[in-house]
Write a structure and sequence with these properties.
Layout lengths: L13 E2 L3 E6 L3 H10 L5 E4 L16 E2 L8 H11 L6 H20 L6 E2 L2 E2 L1 E2 L9 E2 L6 H14 L4 E4 L3 E8 L2 E8 L6 E11 L20 H9 L3 E2 L4 E9 L5 E3 L3 H4 L3 E3 L19 H15 L4 E4 L5 H7 L1 H9 L9 E10 L2 E3 L11 E3 L4 E2 L12 H23 L4 H9 L15 H15 L3 E2 L1 H14 L11 H22 L8 E2 L7 H4 L1 E6 L2 E8 L2 E4 L1
Helix pairs in contact: 1-4, 1-10, 2-3, 3-10, 5-14, 12-13, 12-14, 13-14
């Protein structure tokens, strides 16, 4: 049983004045939405770490948009649909790809300088794309460049109040309507309530549920967990994308080797130096990520190794240094030369294809709660996200959210009503419960990560998923993780809720499709499983996909 709140809101709290919109998260999705809203409205941005510490910052590859002929939005649409393995919502994809070029124009207006070649924006190819349509900035530092510029731009706006290093605990709801956010003040260690007419969830991913991940330490599934506790529907969460090419540095840290390197012509080879993707897929190394990872698993098993090689030694050294400066110098620090050496790589948890279900405007199943970016499930990714569609999706659906909230806000501002509703949720000051302070939070996190990696990672089966569920059930309702001001315990509570949802959906889906691979059900089963799984407080629902149409069942 999952408690409704991490901290009981009837405890002694500070209630802030209402604002127009609270945005949780400062990556490209949340920040771009906040920037647009701040022109006419009062916006509060809550972020768990510094403004720059987001998954956006770590996005090396680039951002996808069909901006140059002969490429057209229809081509981008087709590639996205193919990658999604039959579960993309065609309308959601059309919204994404049609609006992508406009989002690029907006980024340029905000000062983002995309890399130029021969007087034009430089475009490259990545896995699953049949045309060069990946824009990049700073070589292989696209996310970092975009995030830096957006943060700089946002800091100069009077309409945004930033709360960095601030932990959003829960969404406050009344009659299935979101009234705001509860948060843990890092300076006072006290619970605070931030009432708002609208709330935007843009809190990123769940990579820290796994032992190996490309995600930053903050990616502990907080957004999914708080939305689920509030009663929102979660969709497609069994589809966890693993990135094929991650390098382990001398100090044991993971460093992502951008897919764009393969887009420029790098090969994948087994430990004997043989290219293994040529016979596996017509696009070879540029096959969609789920196919590349699946082939890597086969090759590693057949060669009794835990790595494959990426080989760029046949490519122009000058091009590699200019196009991939971060990768080039990171490898030099580790005694390797990208232009001369084969680089050992493996896969790591990278992206959550599903998340909090939204409509085409970004609205969740809870009134006045919107969601965008990796934490959301718009239907655009299906069972496997097409490379470099994540940044552009955050922008497109953030823009849709901005338009909806901007339209609705004027009639929402009614004198004192929101504060009265918040007051109705707060009872008399209660006595904080005291729990065992000796519980080893880090040990449980370590065991959870190991279990999720082995039992609910790339390959799953019914038995392993049951074992993973056993560990989660053991702790998920433990009072030790609730009514505590220990941020790490609260993160663990969120990790357990998110893990439970992944395991439950993966157990229900008795087939293999995209980034969900069941050893005991190795085939895709369109007859029974061409549908989405929805998980909502004590409810399971399905959305059937027939001839591209999505209908609830």
């Amino acid at each position: 049983m999952v408690p409704r709140y991490l901290i009981d809101p009837s405890q002694k709290v500070k209630v802030h004045k209402p604002c127009d919109c609270t945005v949780i998260g400062s990556g490209i999705a949340g920040l771009s939405t906040a920037i647009r809203l701040s022109g006419r409205h009062r916006v509060k941005v809550i972020t768990k770490s510094s403004l720059r510490e987001s998954t956006t910052w770590y996005a090396q590859g680039g951002i996808a948009a069909a901006i140059k002929k002969p490429d057209l939005w229809k081509n981008h649409y087709e590639d996205t649909i193919i990658a999604g393995q039959g579960l993309c919502d065609p309308k959601a994809v059309e919204i994404l790809v049609k609006n992508a070029p406009r989002m690029i124009e907006d980024l340029i207006e905000q000062g983002i300088n995309f890399d130029i070649s021969e007087g034009e924006i430089s475009l490259t190819t990545e896995g699953g794309h049949r045309h060069p349509r990946i824009l990049h900035a700073g070589g292989d530092a696209t996310g970092e460049e975009i995030e830096k510029k957006l943060v700089k731009y946002a800091r100069n706006l009077d309409g945004i109040q930033f709360l960095p290093n601030y932990f959003a605990m829960d969404l406050l709801t009344l009659d299935n309507r979101c009234l705001g956010v509860t948060g843990l003040n890092p300076h006072t260690n006290m619970l605070e309530i931030h009432p708002s007419f609208f709330t935007v969830l843009a809190s990123g991913g769940i990579g820290q549920l796994y032992e190996l991940s490309t995600n930053p330490p903050i990616s502990t599934g907080d957004g999914v967990a708080m939305a689920y506790r509030a009663g929102a529907a979660v969709m497609d969460i069994e589809f966890i994308q693993f990135h094929p090419t991650v390098f382990k540095t001398k100090d044991g840290k993971l460093f992502l080797i951008s897919e764009a390197l393969r887009g420029e012509g790098a090969f994948l080879k087994d430990k004997h130096g043989k290219r293994f993707m040529i016979d596996a897929h017509p696009q070879a190394e540029l096959a969609p990520r789920d196919i590349v990872v699946k082939e890597m698993v086969k090759v590693m098993k057949a060669t009794d190794s835990n790595f494959v090689y990426i080989d760029a030694t046949h490519l122009s050294p000058s091009m590699l240094k200019v196009r991939f400066p971060n990768i080039y110098y990171k490898l030099l620090e580790n005694g390797l030369n990208l232009t001369k050496d084969l680089i050992k790589v493996s896969f790591a948890a990278h992206y959550m294809n599903g998340g909090v279900k939204t409509d085409y405007e970004g609205l969740t199943s809870i009134e006045d709660l919107y969601s965008c970016g990796e934490v959301s499930a718009t239907g655009a990714h299906g069972a496997n996200r097409l490379a470099s569609n994540s940044l552009i999706e955050g922008l497109v659906y953030g823009w849709n959210i901005y338009r909806q909230i901007d339209k609705k806000l004027m009639r929402k501002r009614s004198g004192g009503k929101l504060q009265k509703e918040i007051g109705s949720l707060l009872g008399p000051v209660g006595q904080q419960e005291h729990h065992d302070k000796q519980i080893d939070t880090e040990d449980i996190i370590h065991r959870l990560k190991k279990t999720m990696s082995l039992k609910a990672g790339i390959s799953r089966d019914g038995e392993s998923l049951n074992e993973a569920a056993g560990l989660v059930k053991r702790y998920i309702g433990s009072p030790a993780f609730y009514n505590t001001s220990d941020k790490r315990k609260a993160e663990l509570a969120n990790m357990l809720v998110t893990a439970m949802l992944i395991i439950k959906a993966a157990s229900l889906r008795k087939e293999s499709r995209g980034t969900h691979q069941r050893i005991d059900f190795p085939d895709k089963d369109d007859k029974r499983w061409k549908k989405h799984i929805l998980l909502q407080k004590d409810k399971i629902g399905y959305i059937e996909v027939k001839d591209g149409r999505h209908t609830k069942s």
